Amino acid sequence: MPVQLLAFLIFWGGIVCICVGLCYVEFASMAPFAGSAYTYAYIALGEILAWVVGWDLLFEFTVVCSTVSVGWSGYVVSFLQSLGLDLPAAFARDVAHGGVVNIPAILGLLLVGYIAYSGVKNVSRANVLLTIIKLLAIFFFLACGLGHLQPANWHPFAPFGLGGILTGAALTFFAYTGFDGMTSVLEEVKNPQRSIPVALIGGLLIVIILYVSVAAVLTGVVNYSRLDVPDPAAFALLEMGIRWGGALLSVAVLFGLIAVMLGYGLSATRILFAMSRDGLLPPVLARVHPTTRVPYIATLLIFGVAILGGGFFSINELAELANIGGPFDSHRFS
Known about the structure:
It contains 11 helices and no strands. It is mostly helical and 334 residues long.
């Protein structure tokens, strides 16, 4: 990726999100309660606006969870096909592509829902495992790509000029979002005044480094004009002659999308819990399981709605709904 574009990605994407993250850190330090932006709106702006913010977040997070499950289903089907296993189209595709019910999407959400229901410690363990797998996949790609870099692919530095740089920066901004989800579980974090700032800022800095590194290697291996494909990393590995690398990355993507579903689904359950506890929704939704210590009714409701969306709607329909609540790119999961 051109040097100037990298700089703008860091400035417009990473630096802006770090500033937003610092705002979340300040709120988290003053009000270490579940609910994230809903709770902060409740404290600062009152019940009416908090009600709107809360429902917006609930809608967005739940629908995004459904959307990602459909994308996850597509990767599962492709992976099974590479092994010579073909699932019936009626039970492996969304309704827009001739399916009746998307069974893989439902199974993926059931798995994620089970992890969320089993307790925050199991969620933490799952996230650690999934993060390790994702990082290993990224480092594998970087290690392979460094030996195939062609500096000529980075020229010209800015093929579309300043307008292209600004457009690219705006389109990639969404990739930095989602960090606010960790503030939805503040009450389940030890020493949140210290842990959350470290996690937010540290995580964003690591993400910036990884995004820029992958972009630099990717465009150094393959010219940017040939990267308008759904799976650019796998395409680059094929260009390097590493055919089995694409299958390896597909498996890593499967684990990565599970982490995405888990993050959004967990955040939605805690926001629903917080709204119920504040009296804006029926108090039954705030009930906590005596063993797992999670808001189990809220968890069942959120993942139940997500399963209906993932099982019976197309990825484009879900992505359009998700965009009502916030920036979302369906192409990441299709």
